[in-house]
Amino acid sequence: MKKLLFFTCIVLVSCTVSKPTLKGKYQETPYQIETSKSFDETWSKLIDLFAQKGLSIKIIDKSSGLITSEKTSFLSSYTFENEQGQPEKPNAFVVVSKLSAMGRVYPPQTLTGEWNVRIKPVEGKTIINVNLVNIVAQYFQPQSQYSAQKTYDLEAKSTGVFEKLITDQIK
Known about the structure:
This protein is of the alpha+beta class. The strands form three sheets. Strands 1, 2, 3, 4, 9, 10 and 11 form a seven-stranded antiparallel sheet that branches. It starts with a helix and ends with a helix.
């Protein structure tokens, strides 16, 4: 009986899956922060922030002002949007489109990205550009004896929370 119920659910899910796009407005270009702090002080504070948040660094090049994180999982820090297109969890780093079927919302099983931070001194101030790149958000419908595994790609964007943490750390 359980197998029949599972099969029925899989068939119904595969036929009625709804994957809306994100409604809200999210950063499309790198988030820019300007500070009167020196390049060296800004650099040090950013390295501290990466360490405090447990973000492993893949590329660190002080001469070019570039810090890139390793591929980071956001499964513990994501949210969906509410009906108004606002993130449901205000402290989440990433917002993901809802994959739903028959009244059930399916969470992403893969949700990764890389933080790309560029710091540069410009005329007595320091400019920081922050961008979330290489975002992958997916849900996998399991394979059954009646259907192959199906992958659903989800839309995902930065909520701006991490960028605001950087702003607060630099001030």
